[in-house]
Each structure stands twice: as C-alpha cells, then as structure tokens.
Amino acid sequence: MTGQGISEELSAKFEKLKKYINDLGSLAVGFSGGVDSSFLLAVAHEVLGERAIAVTVRVCSVPERELDEAKAFCEEKGVRQILCPFDALSVEAFRFNRPDRCYHCKLGVFSDIIKTARENGIENVAEGSNMDDMSDYRPGHKAIAELGVKSPLREAGLYKDDIRKLSRAMGLKTWDKPSYACLASRFVYGDEITVEKLKKLEAAEGFLIDMGFAWERVRLHGDVARIEVPPADIPRIVSDETRKAICDRFRKIGFMYVALDLNGYRTGSMNAMIGELAT
C-alpha cells in the first residue's frame, strides 16, 4: 500500500502485519472500537474473512457510547461480534483502584475472551496495543504476556501515527478518533471505584464531547471534577457561556466543584501519583 501519504517503509510494515495475521490462521480480536483495535480488526477481517471475529467485553468502566460505536463498526464491516460481560467490580484490585488495577482487569477480561474464542473454534486471541503504548505505565501488558495474547500491531512495529495513516488509506471512519482509555483511569489510585462514580464521569465526559471537546478527560478528585482539554481549547472552554454551561451541568450530575487543569489534556496523568504512593 503506497500512495495516499503512505511511505514504502509504512507499506512494508502493513504487509508484515498482514502476513503475521495470515500465519495465525484464525483470530479473535479483543475489540473496543478504538483506533487501534478497529484497524486491527479490519485488517484481520480482510486477511482471514470469517476466521476473524470481534469479542467486545461489556464492562462498567466503558461508556455505552463506545459500545454503540463498536457495534456499528462491526455491522458496517460485516464482522461477527460477540459481546462478553465482565464484572470488573468483583475484582478487588480493580474496585479499590490499586496501581496494578489494569493488570488484574486485563487478566480477567482476556481470560474471558480466550474462553469465548475457544468456544467458537478460534485458536488465537489478539489485542490492539501499538509501539507508543510501551512508553507509559501499562501493567496490563504483563497480563497480556502471561495469557499468550498476540499483539500484532507491535509485532509489525506500528506506532499510533502509522495506524491513523493506514486507517485513513483504508477508508476507516476511526482514523481520526480521539484516543480513549477506560473510565477507571480517571480515578486517583486508592479511591474506590463504584458504578455511581463511573456514571457521573460518563455523563460529564459525554457532555463535553457533545459540546465539541472531542479530546478531553474528566478526572475525579472527591467532589471535584478536574477537566483536561488541549491547551488550544482552553480559551473556548473558559468563555463565559461555555464555562457556565459546564458548571451548571456538572453540578446537576453531582460534582460540587469544577476545575480546569492548566497543564491541558494528557493521557495517563494519574500515573504521576504512582511514585508518591510507593514512598
């Protein structure tokens, strides 16, 4: 795949990915509907046809909006999708938001995905992490390795920007979709995760998205909602009309105070506390 802004180097990575997937023979993709897993699923379906399926886990920390988009993607592409429920709050490390929360959650989620794949005659399971994911604190990768789950995008040496370019060349609507992480990442480590708190965050972030702030996070600090948006969006979000609308809605949702993080939007901002928790 060359042209359309795709270099020979990137095209070679794409061919490497397709060969890797083809050699697997059959594949169940842990599918969230995000940029990475959508691209991986689309390529797997192109290479393997009906021997590629999507397994989407229904978990309390993923908004209904994301689930609906994942369903729509599979329907549009003609990919068989299996929905698999998982009770994350029954996992103590998840519920009490320990620093290794993601490890225990991924272990449970992908154990269920592997079971579902086996029940449907699929030999291999894959997830959508890319090379950029190796630079942040990601305890979930340990669980992935322990379970023998494949990471085709990393095997092909693909970075997020590569995946967006290839997704656009393939005509995938997800090519410019903002990055997303589960709502549990909005909590301070050690703060108990509950359905009520998750619903508050889902409502708050959904409101910001509907207002046009696609790249956003709402972090939970007790009764305080700490909003992160890109620095370029700060003047707009603090304009009188927008600021008042956000404060009014957030208070109705259940937040007593609404704060704006002047550092702006950044993934993994709660991970800055890990060093403090270890001391």
Please give a quick description of this structure.
By secondary structure, the chain is of the alpha/beta class.
Would you count the extended β strands for me?
7
Strand order of the largest sheet: 3-2-1-4
Name of the CATH first level of the largest domain = Alpha Beta
Could you state the oligomeric state of the chains shown?
single chain
Helix coverage percent of residues?
Answer: 40-55%
Q: How many domain modules?
A: 2
Task: List segments where confidence is low: pLDDT < 50 over at least 5 consecutive residues.
Answer: 275-279
Radius of gyration: 19 Å
Mean pLDDT: 93
Report the sheet-strand fraction: 5-15%
| SSE ordering | HEHEHEHHEHHHHEEHHEH
End-to-end Cα distance: 50 Å
How many helical stretches? 12
CATH topology name of the largest domain, in short, is Rossmann fold
Shape: globular
Helix/strand structural class: alpha/beta
CATH architecture of the largest domain: 3-Layer(aba) Sandwich
Biggest β-sheet, characterized? 4 strands, parallel
CATH superfamily of the largest domain: HUPs
